[in-house]
Amino acid sequence: MSSIFDATGFSLRELPYFHQWEAVFYVQLIWFALLVVGSLLLILINFSHLFLAGLKGFAIYFSLFCALKTAGGICSVIFLHGSTMSEGVFIASYIFNSVSLGVLTKSMFPFLEKMMKGDPTLDEKVEQRPLLHFNGSPITPLRILTLLLTVAIITSIVGATGISSTPVSSTTTTMFKVSAVLFTVGVLAMAACLVYVGYKYSYYSKICWILFISVPLLIVRCSYSLASAFHGINFSSPSQFMIIFGDYKYYAFMSLLTEGIIGVIYLGTFFWFITSHKSLSRGSSL
Questions:
Q1: CB–CB of 226/186 below 8 Å?
Q2: How much helix, strand and coil, in percent to the nearest 5, is found in the chain?
């Protein structure tokens, strides 16, 4: 039976940068496994405050993001150490390592939703103004962004499942391009929301600017997705941006490193919100 890897003309051990890719994925596996443990510990320790603070969504999405990156690292290591190049393992690795961007971006939304409700030290509650209504339900900016990211994740998964065809179809390539563009639009819109909240509510201004540090990193990560998508997938002549078959430096510094740093920023922000909620709760009980 023919394989999509027949066009490469070399074995696994002859992959360009084989040992460098191996090191990159071991680092990914260990780093995000540690983030999984760290996030779960914070969630369990502060479980009673999680729902009251309105951060249940962050706990779910961030844990899923870390799990996806860990699974991506595991699948990639398995692929590199397999006796043959496994299509299924490669596709799984591609899916885990690509859709994680959408889940990471979505992890920011619970913070934005909480901050857009206004200053918690004041007796005010600000409702998001809907842009339009659909079947009587209000459609807010964050709901539109959620839909956009959901479409980006779906197109990325559908595109990855199409890798198994030889040669890779134009539909698959288009799916990757659409996904990358939607991810980028989502990140830029999220950055605009952060700027808006930071200027409107002084209580959140400091944490907004800390979160804003992640925006340039997300843009770099999106740039990697765009470069990878628009260069396409070609196993006979892989681009330098292609995972495993390309140059490891692009993935290591534009994807792995950026997502790793953003993960730490988000986890620190989660701790700040939980601590802030506890402080406000103690103050209101006096």
A1: no
A2: 75, 0, 25
Q: What pTM does this model have? A: 0.89
Mapped onto helix, strand or coil, the DSSP state of residue 29 is: helix
Instruction: Give per-residue pLDDT as tens, 40-67.
Output: 999 999 888 888 788 899 999 999 999 9
Q: List, for residues 138-186, the tens digit of each pLDDT value.
A: 667 888 898 999 999 999 999 888 887 767 788 889 999 999 999 999 9
Domain boundaries, the chain: 13-285
CATH code given to domain 13-285: 1.20.1070
Give CA–CA dist 21/76, Å, rounded: 9
Please state the φ and ψ torsions of residue 75, each to the nearest 5 degrees: -60, -40
> In sequence order, what are the residues at sequence separation of 6 or more whose Cβ sits closer than 8 angstroms to the Cβ of residue 99?
68, 153, 156, 157
